[in-house]
Amino acid sequence: MVGNRASLFLAIALLVASATDARAQDSNVDQAKEQYQLGYQSLQRGDYETALEHYQLSYELVPRPRSLFNIAVAEEHLGRLEDALRHYAQFLDVAEDRDEAFETQARKKIVELAKKLPQSADPAPPPVPDEPPPPPPVTLPRRAPQSNSGVLRVRSNLSGALVSVDGLVVGATTSATSRGAKGAAMDHTLAAGEHDVIIERAGTRKWHQRLLVSAREQVQVDVTFRDSQRTRTRILSWSLAGVGTVSIAAGATLGVLALRDVTSTDPSDHSRGKTRATVTDILLIGGAAALYGAWRLGHNPETRATVQRSSRPAEVNP
Length: 318
Prior knowledge:
This protein has 318 residues and is an alpha+beta fold. The protein has helices spanning 2-45, 48-61, 65-77, 81-94, 100-116, 145-148, 231-262, 268-298, and strands at residues 149-156, 162-165, 168-172, 174-175, 184-191, 193-200, 207-213, 217-224, 304-311. The chain folds into three domains: 2-116, CATH 1.25.40.10; 147-227 and 302-311, Carboxypeptidase-like, regulatory domain (Immunoglobulin-like), CATH 2.60.40.1120; 231-298.
């Protein structure tokens, strides 16, 4: 009997520990994504020291390859060339299939940084820490991106729209490119397959959809944002809400008086009650219309997007 109770307590303890570990892992993933996006925003502002701190925290929480790549980018801008070279090499060791565009950049950076670093009398081992070391990465690429990847092109009517693929920010739309894009645009090379794409901008409703990208295909998403946070719009929205609330309150009060007049035993009150009932209807309908208008103005309007597919251009910047 004692042995059965001990086994039961042990099983319960294991279940509680497993649930706790799962919650901790989910929390780490969420925090890692948040730190990654904060790092990206700091990188865009040119605050490389802060970006480096956020990317390092993200990598400590969840060791993802792209965090290593961005750590190296920040270190390169800060002049920490040896650290950048080491982290670019570490990124190549753990890169995933969807990181091929980043791998190409990392290989180029390794060659560039190796030339910039002073040559010592006792040269250090090659930066890519494999045993035995592989040939120079630029001469032996591990994949042929042009044959098994596609391009995601995002165009938006407003610049500064963040583009996330599979939960990680990959860029933002900037001013119109030389390709004749209207508004703002960005291109990103993706491995062939299905990807979770989110396009969002502050003050607007985000666009979210899963897109299937085939090899050598260009998927173009044209996004139209409508900003609902303008000052005059907010003022009008609050004004309508106030008018609607007052109208409904007044209508409810007048309705009570109208009901009392209509049900009065004095026939002279009936005519006044009918008039009050008519005014009550007008106030209630007008108040409801004002509240609906306030909701429409204050509600973030839908972000619209169209998706077009075509053959991938011969050359696309990753």
